[in-house]
Amino acid sequence: xxxxxxxxxxFCFAISVSAQNHKTQNVIVVTLDGxxxxxxxxxxxxxxxxxxxxESKADVRKKYWAATPDERRKMLMPFFWSTIAxxxxxxxxxxxxxxxxVANNYHFSYPGYNEIFTGFxxxxxxxxxxxxxxxxxxxxxxxKQRGFENKIAVFASWEAFPAIFNVGRSGLTVNAGYTDxxxxxxxxxxxxxxxxxxxxxxxxxxxxxxxxxxxxxxEYLKEYKPRVLYLAFDETDDMAHAGxxxxxxxxxxxxxxxxxxxxxxxxxxxxxxxxxTLIITCDHGRGDASPExxxxxxxxxxxxxxxxxxxxxxxxxxxxxxxxxxTTYHKQLAQSIARLLGFDFKKNADHEVGDAIEAMMTKEKxxxxx
Length: 370
Description:
This protein is α/β, with parallel strands linked by helices. Helices cover 40% and strands 12% of the residues.
């Protein structure tokens, strides 16, 4: 009986210590649509620079080319390779032996975003048509938890995101495409940004330019102080499909600057400082068998399942590049987001959900992939 009592006390103590060590109170997710692991970890690709897909080659070399991958990636993504590499974790560097992949079989956007946020690579989600998602996202689950009501928002460039998060059912705040933000307390700057987005270039059709998505999302962050925010950028994918490598690199570099500004704000705001985890990833990879393959992705494009993600926050060890010979999957990110905030999405979802990536949030290096 004494042994049982001691075991129960030890168990309660362990739970108490775990709760005390849990620091993340907010999560911000950012996605760079279709951005390859190759550029993230190696920098600019000389084969594509020297191909027909790069205009102004001398200008691109001046901005992004150096002798080594380490130098090139720092030129392309300075925030990643200064702040995240020293204070967080980066997954998916296949040159270092670590792999990250989508688990769905389609390797394009809607199935990719569904997998990230529902934890379920559902075969029914097999097109980019804006059909309301039948699956529950981790955001929908969190929105029903105490303290998260009306504290979750999505700002996306791609106009399909209201369907991806099934706003008709979930009731989530999702602002996408060139839709005005219409909140209960829009400030003068949000009103100004609503007006400006209609005057900004619409060269992607109904897909909003990332600059406007970022500005609207940042102003919402400052004004509404959400517990969970998601910024979904799109132009890296658009520039790749257009075969414009210069603009693809330039957009990635610009979005790295957005991330730096976002992180600086987080670390200087009392509500977010040392209480917020930032997760950055993509929805799919791209081909790499030839310069031509770089433009494309999908089930028939070799290696377009290969992805990456990065994480930085108060519960994440500062391991930099993860070099373990393991594979993580994007279906694990939904449960990881929930776990960082102290919830169990996998247990409460009405569909299968991948296991959390424990190494993102603990000093103990347990299994990464499942």
